[in-house]
Amino acid sequence: MQEPFDLLIRNAQIVDGTGAPRFAGDIGVRAARIDRIGDLAGHRGRTEIDLAGRIAAPGFIDAHTHDDRLLLSGGEMAPKVSQGITTVIGGNCGISLAPMPRPVPQPVTPPLNLLDGEGGWFRFRRFADYVQALRRQPAATNCAMLVGHTTLRVACLDDLQRPATEGQITQMRALVQEAMEAGAIGVSTGLFYEQAVAAPTEEVIETCRPLKDFNGLYCTHMRDEADGIMDSLAETFRIGREVGVPVVISHHKLVGRANYGRSEETLAFIRSQMKLQPICLDCYPYTAGSTVLSADRAATSARVIVSWSQALPELAGRDLADIARELGVSQEEAIGRLQPAGAIYFRMDEADVQRILQFEDTMIGSDGLPHDASPHPRLWGSFPRVLGHYSRTLGLFPLEQAVHKMTGLTARKFGLAGRGVIAEGAHADLALFDPDTVDEAATYAEPIAPARGIDTVVVNGRIVWRAGRATGARPGQVLSRARHGEAA
Ligand code: ZN
Ligand code: CU
User: Fold this and answer.
1) Based on the domain organization, do 116 and 203 belong to the same domain?
2) When you count CB atoms within 10 A of the terminal residue's CB, does the N or C end of the chain come out lower?
3) Residue 445 domain-assigned?
4) What is the DSSP letter of 439?
5) Where are the alpha helices (DSSP H) in 187-341?
6) Counting ligands in written order, which one lies closest to the CA of residue 146?
7) Among 248-262, 392-406, 416-430, 470-484, where is mean pLDDT lowest?
8) What's the pLDDT at 58?
9) ∠ at Cα 279 (232, 242), nearest 5°?
10) Which three-class secondary structure state does DSSP give residue 248?
């Protein structure tokens, strides 16, 4: 009699993450790995799950998150595992929790305050200290972390309205080197933000120099996602070429009515440039964005919802227009009274979102903001929305393609070895779900809600989500990028 599997999943339709058509089979897991796939009718498992024809997919990889602090302060990762996510990429948009080699300036500089408005969490002097904390107190999901250029600027510059000096660039470069040695997978920038917009292209290139030796990634919330989008793409590609590393265009989108429809132009440019250098992109499946509250972003939006406010916390979740009316002040004055604050901005075109989602090299990322009082629904809903609304209901692409965009493609681009596929020997990260009912439950009005149709979620062979709740297991690992893996 054969030794039973630790976990045996019977009667699955297996969507393996490569984009290949689904097939029927059983999956046997031993310890943290997938041991056997096939007809395992004669076998037993210490834990058995009969899927009765429902789907087994690789656990989803959230290509774009701001979970740096959540991994430590909310390690059950409920907004993530409830969607089937088993790995998060953190440190995006120039914002990382580490390193902060000096006391973080108070009040916490936006957009760093999206991670922590008080500042106590910016306590890791070296990136290695942060990685050690993640390992000592594992979360439910795996993670792979970027180091943020805006964090480095806050750490090294006293005046963020200026380019970094030679000496400051040398300091930032040393911090990038330390982060990469400690296991970071690359650098992110948020050149769009007021705190980084003064950084010339050369500052970014010189700061990112250490990436090449580590096969690191350059991920960017680009300088301009509106009228200047083509220049921003060109700048991103130049940084990638000069540093000699792959680039990831974060949450690709076109902002503002004047730019609606221009994804035809941007995707054509990306496609042609992909022949010359490694490029990929991620996207969240909504027409509203979310970040810190500002008057110019509000002015270019059709609607604004306040997602949090330090000054007037009771107004989180309300429309800015209603708040201004009730206070009897202008929208601008209302914004001033709410600060510091965050917001959800409706200023994208549905046709662009769909075109970008359909692009073959687009990965799914949530860009969720886990500490917002009334968060954008993308935090809890992104992945099931792609599977339910976009794949099943609208038929934008088959389920196999949807899963590929959240698993195999993402693992390959981020160089996460043995992840993102269901294969013998691969890590046992799994999302088990019902293809007929899987969908988002989170809405703009009720943004905190676990997805529908997700049965069971497994990370490194351990069940982290089952029957609508977190199990409390914390098997997450800190993942590194394969040094000689595919160059995205
Ligand atoms: Zn961003
Ligand atoms: Cu972001």
Assistant:
1) yes
2) N
3) no
4) B
5) 201-208, 211-214, 229-243, 263-273, 295-299, 320-327, 331-338
6) 2
7) 470-484
8) 99
9) 65
10) strand
Sheet holding 85-90, edge to edge: 60-62, 85-90, 142-148, 186-190, 217-221, 247-249, 279-283, 362-364
CA dihedral 251, 82, 372, 420 (to 10 degrees): -30
Distance 11 CA to ligand 1 centre (A): 40
Percent of the chain topping pLDDT 90: 98
**Is the pLDDT assigned to residue 27 strictly greater than 80?**
yes
- Computed on alpha carbons and rounded to an integer, the radius of gyration of the chain in Å comes to 22
92 Cα to the center of ligand 2, angstroms: 5
Pairing assessment for the beta strands 85-90 and 186-190 based on DSSP bridges = unpaired
Phi, psi of 264 (to 5 degrees): -60, -45
Asked if residue 125 and residue 251 are part of one domain, the reply reads yes
Which ligand neighbours the alpha carbon of 220 most closely? Answer: 1
Q: Rounded to 5 degrees, what are φ and ψ at 10?
A: -100, 155
Measure 26 CA to ligand 1 centroid, in angstroms: 40
Who's near 51: CB < 8 A, 6+ residues apart? 9, 10, 11, 12, 13, 432, 455
Query: Ligand 1 centroid vs 92 CA: distance in angstroms?
Result: 7
In the reported structure, the alpha carbon of residue 190 is separated from the centroid of ligand 1 by a whole-number distance in angstroms of 6
Whether 279 and 375 map to the same domain: the answer is: yes
* Gap from CA of 7 to ligand 2 centroid (Å): 35
Q: How far is the CA of 371 from the centre of ligand 2 (A)?
A: 13
Beta strands in 149-259 (DSSP E): 186-190, 217-221, 247-249
Question: How many Å lie between the centroid of ligand 2 and the Cα of residue 95?
Answer: 8
Using the mean position of ligand 1's atoms as its centre, give its distance from the Cα of residue 188 in Å.
10
Å from CA of 403 to ligand 2 middle:
21
CATH of the domain at 461: 2.30.40.10
CA angle 419, 290, 470 (to 5 degrees): 45
Q: How far apart are CA 125 and CA 178, in angstroms?
A: 11
Structure tokens at 352: 């662009």
The range of the structural domain enclosing residue 320 comes to 289-345
Question: What is the distance between the alpha carbons of residues 230 and 450, in angstroms, rounded to a whole number?
Answer: 37
- Same domain? 159 vs 104: yes
Q: Within a domain: residue 151?
A: yes
Residue range 37-80, pLDDT digits in tens: 999 999 999 999 999 999 999 999 999 999 999 999 999 999 99
Ligand 2 centroid to residue 249 C-alpha, Å:
11
